[in-house]
Amino acid sequence: MIVVGLTGGIGAGKSTVSTMLAERSAVIVDADQIARDLQAPGAPLLDAMADRFGVRVIDEHGALDRAAVAAIVFSDEQALEDLNGIVHPAMQAEIQSQINVHAGTDRIVVLDFPLLGENPRKGLAATIVVDVPYEVSVERAVARGMDETDVRNRIKSQITREKRLEAATHVIDNSGDLASLKAQVDATWAEISEIAGDAPAGDLA
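Given the sequence above, the corresponding structure tokens read:
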């Protein structure tokens, strides 16, 4: 087993690339989905978030109001730091648990993690960054229905595009068309598969 990181800023198209990699037989460990599961109604993390940010972050059905949380943390550095302190330890433990399921196999596990740049992970065989210019990411996120101010606040709360690219072993430029994206994913997958084939016996994670 090797573990490969996959990351990208808002609107970069990381989820599309993740889907394409899954179609090529990668095992996807989805950090966003893990976070959603950990914050499901009745989960201990939800109680901790309500204690820190108030009951306004819980809707009438007992579910997390993500928009309310975003409105608080993406314009307040301390609030964002507190949120990360609540969520990330449990999230990292679950990520590792899902990776461990494939220990001792020949699988390529892709850790799909938007905040990989902010939370670097040791033992990755490669790091794929899906990249687009800032204004393209804003335009795409707004086209999906997000508020432009919210999008820009989220971008400001993340590491810079340049810092994210510094950590990349493979960059996928998603500013073009779908054909270009597919060709780049194919090339990247071929390179990652070669790394997996050259890996020594045992796990790299």
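The chain has a mean pLDDT of 91. Try to locate this feature in the token string yourself.
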